[in-house]
Write a structure and sequence with these properties.
The protein is mostly helical and 133 residues long. The chain has 7 helices and no strands.
């Protein structure tokens, strides 16, 4: 039996783990392990690639996000939910060769529709700027 999940579901798993890490100082491996134990979660291999990639390149990713924000905005001012979505999408755009920017942006907007009140326009704008840069 094939245990793989859709790319969107893998991104969603990755987003949730990246989001959780924002609130905890433990290493990402421990957060993943805790999620697997407490929620009977089977973390998809692509989700692991995303999460580990985000945290291996976090300062570069945050610098990319920061440089594509409007004047007066900083990463610290972004909601935690949107920041997790942006980090995931920027990682895919900059470090995953087989994912076109348009796909990473669209998937990020879909996550924003599901998990934010109304930040999909903001996320789309920042990622559009990243894509053009």
């Amino acid at each position: 039996m094939d245990n793989s999940i859709s790319r969107f579901k893998a991104r969603e798993q990755g987003f949730i783990l990246v989001f959780e890490k924002i609130f905890h100082s433990e290493p990402i491996e421990e957060i993943i392990s805790n999620a697997e134990e407490s929620r009977d979660l089977v973390v998809d291999s692509y989700a692991l690639t995303l999460v580990n990639g985000v945290y291996a390149n976090l300062s570069d990713i945050d610098a990319i996000i920061d440089s594509n924000l409007k004047k007066g905005w900083t990463v610290k001012r972004i909601s935690k939910t949107s920041l997790a979505i942006l980090r995931l999408a920027v990682f895919e755009m900059k470090y995953v060769d087989n994912v076109p920017d348009s796909v990473a942006i669209n998937e990020a907007v879909e996550l924003a529709k599901k998990y934010t009140v109304d930040e999909r326009g903001f996320i789309n704008g920042v990622l559009g700027s990243v894509s053009k840069a």
